[in-house]
Amino acid sequence: MIQSDKGAGLPDKKDKTLSTATNPKNGLSQILRLVLQELNLFYSRDVNGVRLLYDLLNSPWLQALLKVYDCLQEFKEQKLVPATPHAQALSCEVVEILRETPNSPDIQELRHILQAPHFKALLSAHDTVAQKDFEPLLPPLPDNIPESEEAMRIVCLVKNQQPLGATIKRHEMTGDILVARVIHGGLVERSGLLYAGDKLVEVNGVSVEGLDPEQVIHILAMSRGTIMFKVVPVSEPPVNCQKMMYVRAMTEYWPQEDPAIPCMDAGLPFQKGDILQIVDQNDALWWQARKISDLGTCAGLIPSNQLLKRKQREFWWSQPYQPHTQVKSSISISMEEEDDMKIDEKCVEADEETFESEELSEDREEFVGYGQKFFIAGFRRSMRLCRRKSHLGRLRARGCCASGRCGAGGAPYEEVVRYQRRPSDKHRLVVLVGPSGVGVNELRRQLIELNPNHFQSAVPHTTRSQKSYEMNGREYHYVSKEAFESLVYSHRMLEYGEYKGHLYGTSVDAVQAVLDEGKICVLDLEPQGIQVARTHELKPYVIFIKPSNMSCMKQSRKNAKIITDYFVDMKFKDEDLQEMEDLAQKMETQFGQFFDHVIVNDHLQDACAQLLSAVQKAQEEPQWVPATWVSSDTEP
Ligand SMILES: Nc1ncnc2c1ncn2[C@@H]1O[C@H](COP(=O)(O)OP(=O)(O)OP(=O)(O)O)[C@@H](O)[C@H]1O
């Protein structure tokens, strides 16, 4: 029923002499044919590269592709017009004529098709399009409309299971009920018939004048099927010309617990670390967003950056004064940390001699190999114990604000973008964090042992003196206290601490040295160090190693040993496992927003396989990273 208004006649001779490319009949496949004829002359002479070109141009797939292209070009030139705008009536006529014709199976089938409801609906749709009859028939306007009368719009929406996706408010001065906001992806927004600022006059024939917004909502809630709104349209419907933005939530938000939200049901709850797509920032206080894990749904309300910061400040100030919440410099150990040490040391007092022999035995552990000898740095007992001291001290100190609400006063949302590492880019630093004893070092060691040419640890710094059997730059970088402190003050230390009077730490430069070799640097950091490592040069991918539940841990850690201050390999006690679980929970509450991946370390081999796969994904697949990491890449 749709045909072209362009004649299908062949082009005349004169046309043929014109450029072949402009003639859709001869198009690209004709040009190709001519080129092939030309090339054929050179083919037998074996001119350099001609055979290759000939074979390529002669390939059936290219010919077929070009034919498709030509057909599409020809089709594009045609202008489609309907053969009749009254196909429905014509079909009825045909059915009538068929009734009078002698019956045959073909006639019966045709009548059957023409009378089928779907076919009738198709013809009706065809006629509507053919007649360009899209507008509903409206009664003529009466002549005596007063000049001052506002133009009204009648809007009918069919309510289904979903909410309408709009909020209303009462105008403070006039008392009018207005559409306050239209939620992206909701029924109202998809209809394109109601806008923020439209004044509601009637809902289902009931005047809303003098009603409270709650009463109007009640009418809407009671309505079934079609809802009719009479509205005075806003003079200039708002245009959303903002670009879509993606953010990582650095805090959590529960609309049900927020009495200030304009509409609780329209709120979008989120947790730390969730990636949100911000679709509307027109309102300075309430943005509209979706979770990227749920982009098909309609958006929800979230507090804007500014509002959430205000809420955080209010929450912070409403808390009773907590002297422990101040961050201590880990370079000078607090009284509390000193106490921790004393408690540990009470069990077995270590003398220097035992200390020396212990360090020596650790050396041998650090040479591992399968027919190959290599050294893995960064697993030293003293380094790990030193980290544990400062880590425990600080976690305890911060534990009192671990409600997850105060967010350490940082920005509540962090703008993120999808980052795909190019093969020429340096690898991303892999950071493992987890409560002490969960198996961070065991997993790290297993990963490095899998392929020591690909995975490597960073060599830490220390101020303790070098032992006769050690090499500078292998076990540690041995530096003076002044040199160490200078690294700290110039922010080149990812983390550092003191143990038995010596400073230990991991520097950014030590990590860079591994990355510069084209390897993947795998670090074990205490969670406070994550923020320091989060720079565009290191682009860390943070993996949280989490203990499984108590009963599984008791089973899987039956033969496991804790590294302790005293030199007996201690088996895990129930209190150790409980402390591990508590610490893991605190870490997740305080630092969960920085975790890119979580691995539950139950069965060691499973956890190791998960770690390998996560590390590969981090390097090879697109990941959400802070926008500043990527824009800084393009800076000179
Ligand atoms: N999944 C597991 N199943 C059984 N044993 C495990 C598992 N993971 C780790 N272990 C064992 O638990 C003990 C502690 O692990 P590891 O030394 O790696 O702890 P950690 O997290 O590095 O803590 P720290 O740095 O405080 O020593 C080790 O004996 C290790 O072999």
From TrEMBL:
UniProt cross-references to SUPFAM superfamilies, sorted A to Z: L27 domain, P-loop containing nucleoside triphosphate hydrolases, PDZ domain-like, SH3-domain
Protein known as: MAGUK p55 subfamily member 4
Residue intervals of the PDZ domain: 154-235
Residue ranges of every copy of the Guanylate kinase-like domain listed in the record: 427-616
Span list, region Disordered: 1-22
CDD domains (alphabetical): GMPK, PDZ_MPP3-MPP4-MPP7-like, SH3_MPP4
Database matches in PROSITE patterns: GUANYLATE_KINASE_1, GUANYLATE_KINASE_2, L27, PDZ, SH3
Family note: Belongs to the MAGUK family.
Keyword Magnesium attached: no
Domain L27 span(s) in chain numbering: 24-80, 87-137
Top-level lineage group: Eukaryota
Chain coiled-coil ranges: 570-621
A UniProt-annotated Pfam family: Guanylate_kin
Keywords assigned by UniProt, alphabetized: Coiled coil, SH3 domain
Taxonomic source organism: Ceratotherium simum simum (Southern white rhinoceros)
Domain SH3 residue range list: 242-312
